[in-house]
Amino acid sequence: MSLNPARVAREFPSRYRLEAARCSGCGRVAFPARLVCPHCRGTVLSPVTLHPDGKVVTFTVIHVPPAEFKGQSPYVLAVVELEAGVRMTCQIVDVDPLAVQTGMQVRLEFRRIQEDGEAGVIAYGHKAVPA
Amino acid sequence: MREVAIIGVGLSQWGEIWGSSLRSLWTEAALAALADAGIDRVDTITVGSMSPGLFVGQEHLGALLADEIGMAGVPATRVESACASGGVSLKAAFAEVASGLASIALATGVEKMTDVSGDECTAALATAADAELEVFHGATFPGLYALMARAHMERYGTTREQLAMVAVKNHKHGSLNPRAQYRQVITVNDVVRSARVADPLNVLDCSPITDGAAAVVLAEIGLARKLAKGRPVVRIAGIGHATDCIALHNRPDMTTIPATTKAAERALAMAGKRPQDMHLVELHDCFTIAEIVVLESLGLCAPGEGGKQAESGRTALGGALPVNVSGGLKSKGHPVGATGIAQIVELTTQLRGEAGKRQVAGAKLGLAQNMGGTGASTVVTVVEVAS
Asked: Which of A116, B183, B195, B229 is 20 to 30 A from A1, comparing alpha carbons?
């Protein structure tokens, strides 16, 4: 994926601050924030910052990675559920892949995700670690 | 709405075809379908292709390919829905003939995947997932299906061996198909011991990278009867299409594919049929777990029972519900934009009774399921021998 600086920058709210949006109609939370609630199509949403605690819903160990992630494999990729039922896909790090289990408690930390060569943009975001 | 029949089918060579370009593969399939139909003109052309821009640096396929067969002037459009591009190509052509906008349509699909490196191919395929929410974090397609596989295994007790049995069955079927890319018979042990890709999926759980094209000619049924020349007339009895959120994690239940269920309900309602009426099914086994989940999502078995279908022999050639007798994506190959059309080529060949060693005896009614991404786009088509 191209790490165009404008693209990386406009993703700062969700990637740096875990900003989401709560729908005033149905109360459900969309992450990242959206203009239209995917559940009830409401258009009045207010910003909400998610708490970084969550649990593992399902996971895999990637042995054949995309080119940008060759230095990281094998790595654990998981679906993590945060508060209010919000789910995200992210890596789980600082753990033996064989020790990861469904239901495991994790916490999101701010980490380097990928970089565009030696002089290019470095993209940051969240990875989960055991809580 | 007018009734629509399939009057011609054609495939190009399938495999790693270094000597053929996108346009030559497509031409091979298109000419084969036109010759099979016994016609030399069409009113409209649709081209399903997922990512020719990334695979061969070419967009604007509609005009390019119409001209390639000397049909510049004919309306021609490329349509895209990731690996369901073939299915939506069929649907677009069906709609034109059913509505009366066209009398004869050439519905095609093509993908030329081996002009790029493995890494470039992975990156092109990954564009069918959510770039910001999945691929950014290191997701791959085997990885996303592996997330579904683990969820299914933990919820229902589906086993590693049951996943492998899907690949074993489909390779056995493919061994009977002269057009299949990988015709060797494999064992459960081969699959379980093959190289790890994304735990629990190994390389033999994954469909291959394939160059290929497929084409079908559609016509209004009255015209189809005149051109039949004694062969059975195969009609499109129903077609359904549905979408879902493309990020897998946003689906409450990752052990099922709701867009497949919705598309099937629409296609079956149009056809006036039930899932259990089908004589054979071609479905989108891009990974072994996909066949298991899709069988359940189509209502062909109960939730959680998908793993037992290949194991029991029910879905093998000769079983009660043969699935992927072509070899499926796993053995026949998966040129992503061509797959949805190739499934219709197989069903039509079967319903005409022309499938040779892999013929399903007495097949009169079949269903195809073609999906893109982790199932966020699905097209389901029901075809039957017209009475």
From this structure: B195
pTM: 0.98
- CATH superfamily, domain B126-208+236-385, is Thiolase/Chalcone synthase (3.40.47.10)
Does the CB of B126 have a partner CB in chain A at under 8 Å?
A: yes
The answer, for B73 touching chain A at a CB cutoff of 8 Å, is no
The residues spanned by each domain of chain B are 4-117+209-227, 126-208+236-385
- Contact call for B200 and A114, based on CB within 8 A: no
| Longest pairwise C-alpha distance within chain A | 46
Output the tens digit of pLDDT for each of chain B's 387 residues: 999 999 999 999 999 999 999 999 999 999 999 999 999 999 999 999 999 999 999 999 999 999 999 999 999 999 999 999 999 999 999 999 999 999 999 999 999 999 999 999 999 999 999 999 999 999 999 999 999 999 999 999 999 999 999 999 999 999 999 999 999 999 999 999 999 999 999 999 999 999 999 999 999 999 999 999 899 999 999 999 999 999 999 999 999 999 999 999 999 999 999 999 999 999 999 999 999 999 999 999 999 999 999 999 999 999 999 999 999 999 999 999 999 999 999 999 999 999 999 999 999 999 999 999 999 999 999 999 998
Q: Which of B134, B136, B143 sits opposite A62 (nearest CB)?
A: B143
- The CATH number of residue A64's host domain is 2.40.50.840
CA distance A98 to chain B (A): 11
Two domains, one topology: B4-117+209-227 and B126-208+236-385: yes
Residue A110 forms contact with B (CB below 8 Å): no
- Taking an 8 Å cut-off on Cβ atoms, the answer to whether A66 and B199 are in contact is no
